[in-house]
Specification:
Blueprint lengths: L1 E6 L8 E6 L8 E11 L1 H8 L14 E9 L11 E5 L9 E5 L4 E2 L6 H21 L7 E4 L5 H12 L3 E6 L2 H9 L4 E4 L5 H8 L5 E6 L6 H6 L1 E9 L13 H5 L4 E3 L3 H4 L3 H16 L7 E6 L3 H9 L6 E5 L1
Parallel strand pairs: 8-9, 8-11, 9-10, 11-12, 12-13, 14-15
Antiparallel strand pairs: 1-2, 3-4, 3-6, 3-15, 4-5, 5-7
Helix pairs in contact: 2-3, 2-9
């Protein structure tokens, strides 16, 4: 037997239980992983709370982890027993000591990447990769707006965008987070608890607005984000930490300058094995070069995952958080 965090119904952190679970042998195309570290992401809160309904309960949580392959099923060619591997996305259930996964969703780690580092960066790092390199391909000289700039994706994106030659405007909710975002490459940091971010963005850009806004906050920032865009700009809504965006009339996009709106997911951008390896490879490259440093600012024993969720929802965390197994 092994142990995992399970929820028997969706709700608050109090629904999370540390329980014994049976782990089956891997079937065809599958691999058994012994976790060494597991990543915490806001999507875990959505799955736990019911923002994203789960198809079956009881269920574990978590979409990201790193560890060692202990066994493989028939036909597996992507990994072998003993490989250090990591993954992000795919079936949820990372909050576990061991789990079985499709081998095609696993990426073998290079020697330069530690397990804790991998668990902290795969989901957030590959999310940053598709945001900056595919959804909108950031070019030298671009000025971009990034909400939650001191969060896990935010700190990676600040560094990566600067590496690409962009000017980064970041929003945060406190003075401490403002300093953190600045230290990671943000050229301008707006504390939205003290300043009107729309007015400040217009001031910074000389009234022109930005070509792209990356918004993981949702309800509290959505309308203002549209107002920060230049004509034909792109609104990238990739999360809703403040709540779901209310329904709106698409005519708003035309009246604000023929704007584009997208709601992308990592699952779509890494659906094929080739796309997954390309995304992970680009992430390993920028981290290996030192252009992007992964900040693990909090760690918790996996059994204490409920407290980590409370801290994340209270916005007490910065950078990346990992569970140690």
């Amino acid at each position: 037997m092994s142990k995992a965090i399970l929820i028997h119904r969706q709700g608050g952190p109090e629904e999370m239980r540390w329980e014994e679970v049976e782990v089956l042998a891997p079937g065809p195309g599958e691999a058994l992983i012994r976790h060494t570290a597991v990543g915490l992401n806001f999507i875990d809160v959505y799955h736990r709370s019911g923002v994203y309904p789960l198809a079956k309960l009881p269920s574990s949580l978590g979409s990201e982890g790193a560890g060692v392959v202990e066994a493989i099923g028939s036909g597996v060619q992507e990994v072998k027993v003993g490989d250090r591997v990591a993954y992000a996305g795919g079936p949820i259930g990372a909050y576990a000591e061991r789990r079985v996964l499709p081998a095609a969703r696993l990426v073998v780690l290079p020697p330069s990447i530690e397990d804790r580092q991998a668990a902290a960066m795969m989901l957030q790092g590959m999310t940053t990769q598709y945001l900056l390199r595919s959804t909108y391909r950031v070019q030298p000289g671009d000025t971009i707006l990034l909400h939650a700039a001191a969060g896990g994706v935010g700190l990676i994106a600040c560094q990566w965008a600067k590496h690409l030659g962009a000017t980064v405007i970041g929003t945060v909710g406190s003075s401490a987070k403002a300093e953190l975002a600045k230290a990671h490459g943000a050229d301008y940091v707006i504390d939205y608890s003290k300043e009107n971010f729309v007015a400040r963005v217009k001031e910074i850009t000389g009234g022109k607005g930005v070509p792209v806004v990356y918004d993981s906050v949702g309800k509290d920032t959505f309308e203002g984000s549209l107002d920060c865009l230049r004509p034909r700009g792109l609104m990238v809504s990739f999360g809703q930490s403040s709540g779901l965006v209310p329904p709106f009339n698409p005519v708003v996009l035309s009246t604000k300058g023929s704007l584009f709106l997208t709601r992308p997911t990592l699952a779509t951008y890494t659906a094929s094995r080739g796309d997954l390896l390309a995304s992970a490879g680009e992430l390993f490259d920028v981290v290996g070069k030192g252009a992007v440093k992964i900040e693990i600012n909090q760690s918790y024993p996996l059994a204490e995952a409920a407290q980590a969720h409370r801290d994340l929802e209270a916005r007490k965390t910065t950078g990346s958080t990992v569970f140690l197994v």
